[in-house]
Design goal:
The structure holds 3 protein chains of 3 kinds. By secondary structure, chain A is of the alpha+beta class. Chain A contains 9 helices and 12 strands. In chain B, a hairpin with a 2-residue loop joins strand 3 (101-104) and strand 4. The longest helix of chain B is centred in the C-terminal third of the chain and has 15 residues, at 191-205. Classes of the chains: A alpha+beta, B alpha+beta, C alpha+beta. Chains B and C meet through helix 1, helix 2, helix 3, helix 4 and helix 6 of B and helix 1, helix 3, strand 5, helix 16 and helix 19 of C.
Chain lengths: 275, 206, 737
């Protein structure tokens, strides 16, 4: 890894301020949650920040609270805690299932929900220091001429990455909202609108601008009679990304389907809503 | 804990060669990789100025250590090179193999994927900290009895994951043991033995 | 060495490894754990182009980086690497570079971060040459030439090309057949992927070089280093006490050992050179890929009349090993011809990985036989039984051969007659199937040595050059010593893996440790027993021939009450040393371990996922010296076969010739959740040609595993897969059509 300075943030406000400051100074800086994914990006020289802002030192950002018809999940809530939380297991089971098939136990113990949603693609060209691909500022998406067997079959172009998150499709199927904090204050939007197609901007996966970070996920509790599942198809049954994953929530009453959401993972650059 | 739910699925692999939209245009394909042909635009000044070490305090196996570390040093490196606790191994340095697994505040994690500077104030348990003097931990004893190590390189990590599992769930089923160890690779393919050892250790501990 | 079979005291039990304690407590020191005073850290810079002349290397910026102590490259370190390539001279740094990953330079610095930073400051100018990635393309006359003599990899002896072998008359054999079949099977390059990344520590002391190597063979590594550095053997020391796996790609000394040694010389400080996991995937080697074309003639009942094999094996940029395909070894073939072209391409080198010439060609041949059985409407179990090998090359008998029992026992255990059905006959989304294949590995003796020192208190040191790569070789040698000496295992201390201290061992490869070093241990034990009996005879006032030693007591065979504790005998002499160098050979007889594997699978027609619901591995390996690690070996070999069958292959980007999955996750190495419960059965018959009747265990288990699984998938789906790996998409496409 290239040398950098780690700064332990004490609050969301401080983290945002630091990001803004470094951005203004034209220095590269990034926030880090669990760190498992970000460290590998640094080791492979995909990202080389001058400053790493550690969010783990912000107290009280890992809550999971049921409140007025929904569950509020702090950005730093760990995947393992989300998987095992009684409220999520009981009322948001597809989120528990999704969190439970992410990567491996060690990653789930360290990884955060915000990190899982904001993770960079696992495209082998993107992650390799041997390829200066389109997404990294180069000329070419190498899956076009090369091996794109695990890449986008929907919504791709000019970059063909797939979004690697398990929790994201489940959260979109649940109609989750995401709250961000930035220099202009807080913003809440449907999680579905958080992700960015490469046809819009092939250098990013989400709408976060410099200085902005994720602070919370809010998941409304599905209406009674709702059912859903999260199913992940992959080659290896542990520590592997989806070849295709399906998250569904179906709300029905009296034998009539009132609302259904089908969201696919592993097939598109964003969690893909079936229409 | 059930592994997978069944339901309708899509066949993902009929990869559409046309690649949805054909928005490739006339992107010129470069014939070489930048690094090989030209001097890397890498500033010599920003490198090697790594001489500055930050003093940190680490609590490992109940002992307190004070060390000077670079920010870019991982916990695995510091444990091995500076604290000379070489029982924790590095197999891939990418958080994919589990050889570096240690227990941090009661949960198993990849020590190659944590910076040492993030570890202040945490309780770190490594393989060296399992035995109480001459008395081995039940998981270690079971690994001996059930032929847990072949080449032995993944063994520390497998044991730490097994230990972490039993700390949270003292009576796991075999499937739960497999799942608990699933973040640890074993290229010698000794999986049957490692699982049997943790199952046996659980049975003995109660 | 032939001893009459008898009741063993130590051999044949379930004994935990003698170093298990060290391994489970983190006290086992692997090469990378060693720290020497003043030690520097080194990293390797590799070519990013597949074929190019190096025009210039500019290290000036890198040299100025504070902490950098030495930089070597082709320009200032032309060290030959004799075992790295056998058809044209290979150096540790080559010009031209011949594959993406070919080493270009190495840097030693005061810490590994600085070494890595320095790599980025080295400027290399390449002049690109045409390159070729595909083996068949490489054979065309207008292909880019990788070696001075072209791309067919011609060397001497086992490195010749093409590899040709024949007996009988295949044309006559095909005429005698009722039907003749032809087909092609394709396998891919699979990396050994051992958990311990390559690492080497070198230091010079007054002209003597010590290398702490992560090697499978300290003796061979020493020989390599001495040869290529032009040093007498007495001035080279190689040490390896614990080793984190190699499966064939850490045998002998390798280029990174040499680089560490050169850097240590230049810097005048010890150097630890470490590979990243990516270095390990592309900088060393994996199993050669193959395209196998078989022509097989059979009679109505499936009996083989003739086999012809034409194949191409892709050896990558350098020829390190044979490129052979030997999967037909387990069948009785009266007329046989094989013609294999090992070929050079500008890709990652291919060489030895556990049973190097077998799993890929057992997959090809056993799948094809299974296919032919289907078309001839013969039950596979009958097909394999009928055609199993009985005499080597149709004429030489084996030391022992119980392959028939393996087949019978395995088919009984898997429930073959109850479970077998016509391929693809069962409907439903979850398809059940069973399959089988035959395997094994050569068992031959060779050069070995051992020293045994008996202490005045009756305990003993056994000194052998073995490196225990996970097979339990140290324990096996200790058990053999205990049995041969007649003292309890607990009284034995085993020292291994240090050429300054331990005598020659061929190294842990080719399943050779037991047949090569085992007899030497037995002979050394016999040597010291003679000395013990000579001493005791005087004390007990009998003739030496009348004495025996068991459980640490010397006694008169006819009147066992007349005895002495061993300590009392030895104390008089101080220390007794037994030694032996042995080099037995087989005459007019051939040795092989045999195996028959059976698998039951469930194929999900929707997702293409295959679950192995049962796996039975039946092995004929003679006496099993130690059951506990032997069973683990079998399970391990099968697990590696699972990875090769379902998911593993090295993928190279065609545009840039660069490997794109040089890591565990993308190379899809099997995890805990891919590994079924593997049932191991040993068919044990004493083989008088092996130490205590034992044959070989390490490599046989991987050989039939891939084919076994592939044949089970065929039975489940009715679809034949002729190209590895059998990934979910291939299954789904075939089943849905």
């Amino acid at each position: 890894m290239k040398t950098f300075e780690n700064i332990d943030a004490k609050s969301v406000k401080e983290a945002v301020a630091l990001l803004q400051k470094f951005h203004q100074q034209k220095k590269s800086a990034s926030v880090v949650g669990g760190g498992s994914e970000y460290l590998q990006l640094m080791k492979d020289h995909v990202v080389e920040p001058d400053y790493v802002i550690n969010l783990k030192t912000i107290p009280g950002l890992d809550y999971i609270k049921e409140e007025r018809g929904g569950v509020r999940i702090g950005a730093l809530a760990k995947l393992a805690d989300i998987e095992e939380h009684p409220v999520i297991r009981e009322k948001l089971v597809i989120l528990s299932d999704a969190a439970g098939v992410a990567a491996s136990p060690q990653i789930r113990n360290a990884g955060t929900i915000a990190g899982n949603i904001c993770q960079r693609p696992f495209c082998w060209y993107f992650r390799s220091s041997s390829f200066n691909c389109l997404r990294k500022g180069g000329q070419v998406c190498y899956t076009v001429t090369g091996d794109g067997r695990f890449h986008a079959i929907l919504g791709g172009g000019p970059s063909y990455i797939v979004h690697p998150s398990d929790t994201a499709p489940a959260l979109v199927a649940l109609g989750a909202q995401i709250k961000t904090a930035g220099p202009a204050g807080e913003k809440t939007l449907p999680l579905e609108k958080f992700f960015v197609l490469p046809s819009v901007d092939y250098k990013r996966e989400n709408i976060l601008n410099p200085g902005e970070i994720v602070s919370e996920i809010y998941v409304p509790i599905p209406k009674p009679g709702s059912k859903g599942f999260y199913h992940k198809v992959r080659e290896r049954l542990a520590w592997d990304h989806a070849i295709v994953a399906i998250a569904t929530m179906v709300e029905s009453a009296g034998g009539v389907v009132r609302d259904a959401r089908v969201v696919m993972g592993g097939v598109a650059p964003i969690p893909w809503r079936g229409k | 804990m059930e592994e997978e739910k069944k339901g309708t699925q899509l066949s993902r692999r009929s990869f559409l060669k046309g690649l949805g939209g054909g928005a490739i245009g006339t992107a010129v394909i470069s014939t070489g990789l930048a690094k090989s042909d030209s001097a890397d635009a890498y500033s010599a000044e920003s490198v090697g100025a790594s001489g500055g070490k930050t003093p940190i305090t680490l609590k490992v196996n109940g002992k307190t250590y004070r060390v000077g570390v670079e920010h870019r040093s991982t916990l695995a490196e510091v444990l091995r090179d500076q604290l000379e606790l070489t029982g924790t191994k590095i197999g891939c340095d990418r958080g994919e193999c589990g050889a570096c697994t240690v227990i941090i505040n009661g949960s198993n994690m990849y020590s190659c994927s944590q910076l040492a500077v993030w570890m202040q104030g945490k309780d770190i348990l490594t393989i060296e900290g399992l035995a109480k003097g001459e008395k081995l931990d039940p998981v270690q004893e079971a690994f001996i009895e059930h032929d847990g190590p072949q080449c032995g390189f993944c063994t520390s990590g497998q044991i730490m994951s097994g230990k972490a599992l039993l700390l949270k769930n003292p009576k796991p089923t075999e499937a739960q043991v497999r799942r608990g160890l699933s973040g640890n690779l074993c290229r010698c393919g000794n999986y049957n033995r490692e699982v049997a050892a943790v199952v046996a250790a659980a049975a003995k501990s109660r | 060495m032939a001893q009459a079979p008898k009741e063993f005291s130590v051999v044949g039990k379930r004994i935990t490894r003698i170093d298990a304690y060290e391994r489970v407590t983190g006290q086992a020191h692997y090469t990378g754990d060693i720290q020497l005073p003043g030690m520097l850290y080194a990293r390797v810079l590799r070519s990013t182009v597949p074929h190019a002349k190096i025009i210039s290397i500019d290290v000036s910026k890198a040299e100025k980086l504070p902490g950098v102590r030495a930089i070597i490259h082709h320009g200032n370190a032309q060290i030959p690497w004799s075992s790295g390539g056998h058809t044209h001279q290979r150096f540790i740094f080559n010009n031209p570079v011949r594959y993406v990953g070919d080493p270009v330079a190495a840097v030693a610095a005061t810490d590994r971060h600085i070494a890595e930073d320095a790599l980025k400051l080295i400027e290399v100018k390449f002049e690109k040459l045409p390159h070729v990635l595909d083996a068949n393309e490489a054979l065309k006359p207008d292909a880019a030439k990788i070696t001075p003599n072209g791309n067919l990899s011609v060397g001497k002896g086992s490195f010749s090309a093409p590899i040709e072998e024949s007996w009988g008359d295949v044309e006559k054999g095909f005429k005698e057949a009722d039907r003749v079949f032809e087909d092609t099977y394709i396998t891919k390059h699979v990396n050994n992927a051992q958990l311990e990344r390559r690492v080497s520590i070198a230091k010079w002391d007054a002209g003597k070089l010590t290398v702490y190597a992560s090697t499978q063979g300290v003796s061979n590594a020493r020989a390599d280093i001495a040869k290529d550095f032009n040093l007498p053997l007495s001035r080279v020391r190689v040490v390896c006490k614990y080793m984190g796996g190699g499966f064939g790609n850490k045998n002998q000394a390798q280029d990174y050992d040499y680089m560490a040694a050169m850097l240590a010389k230049v810097a005048a400080q010890p150097v630890k050179l470490e590979f990243t996991r990516e270095d390990d995937y592309i900088g060393m080697h994996g199993r050669w890929s193959s395209e196998q074309h078989y022509k097989i003639g059979v009679k109505k009942d499936g009996t083989i009349t003739a086999v012809s094999l034409d194949a191409v094996t892709n050896m990558g940029a350098y020829r390190k090993q044979s490129g052979n395909l030997s999967g037909t070894d387990f069948y009785q073939i009266p007329n046989f011809r094989k013609h294999i072209k090992p070929v050079h391409t500008n890709t990652v080198v291919a060489a030895n990985y556990r049973a190097p010439a077998y799993p890929q060609s057992v997959f090809g041949f056993a799948s094809f036989l299974d296919q032919i059985a289907h078309e001839m409407e013969v039950n596979p179990v009958d097909m394999f039984m009928r055609n199993r090998i009985q005499k080597y090359k149709s004429r030489t008998p084996f030391t022992s051969n119980h392959l028939d029992e393996c087949i019978t026992e395995g088919s009984k255990r898997i429930g073959w007659s109850e479970k077998w059905h016509k391929p693809g006959a069962l409907g439903g989304a979850k398809k059940h199937g069973i399959g089988m294949a035959l395997g094994g590995y050569p068992f031959r003796p060779g050069l070995g040595a051992a020293t045994i020192r008996v202490n005045p208190d009756g305990t003993a040191h056994v000194l052998v050059g073995v490196t225990d790569i996970g097979t339990g070789a140290k324990t096996t040698m200790a058990i053999i010593a205990a049995e041969a000496l007649g003292i309890p295992l607990s009284q034995i201390q085993l020292t291994n893996g240090d050429t300054d201290v331990t005598p020659y061992s061929v190294g842990e490869s080719g399943s050779r440790t037991t047949p090569f070093t085992g007899p030497a241990v037995i002979a050394a034990a016999e040597d010291v027993r003679r000395q013990i009996f000579n001493l005791a005879a005087a004390q007990l006032k009998v003739k030496p021939e009348e004495l025996d030693l068991r459980d640490g007591e010397v006694f008169v065979r006819a009147t066992p009450a007349q005895k002495l504790p061993l300590a009392r005998v030895v104390a008089r002499a101080g220390e007794l040393i037994g030694r032996a160098t042995t080099n037995p050979s087989f005459k007019d007889v051939e040795g092989k371990s045999f195996a028959a594997h059976f698998a039951e699978v469930e194929v999900d027609a929707w997702t293409g996922h295959v679950t192995i619901t049962r796996y039975v591995a039946v092995h004929d390996s003679g006496t099993i010296i130690n059951r506990l690690p032997a069973e683990s070996q079998i399970k391990g070999g099968v697990t590696q076969g699972i990875g090769m069958a379902f998911s593993e292959e090295l993928i190279i980007d065609r545009l840039t010739a660069t490997p794109i999955n040089p890591n565990y996750r993308d190379a899809k190495v099997p995890t805990h959740l891919e590994s079924p419960e593997i049932e191991v059965v040993f068919i044990e018959h004493y083989d008088s040609f092996g130490p205590f009747g034992g044959k070989v265990v390490g490599e046989p288990p991987i050989t039939p595993a891939v084919a076994t699984i592939a044949n089970a998938i065929f039975n489940a789906t009715g679809k034949r897969f002729k190209e590895l790996p059998i990934t979910p998409d291939k299954i789904v496409r075939a089943v849905r059509v």
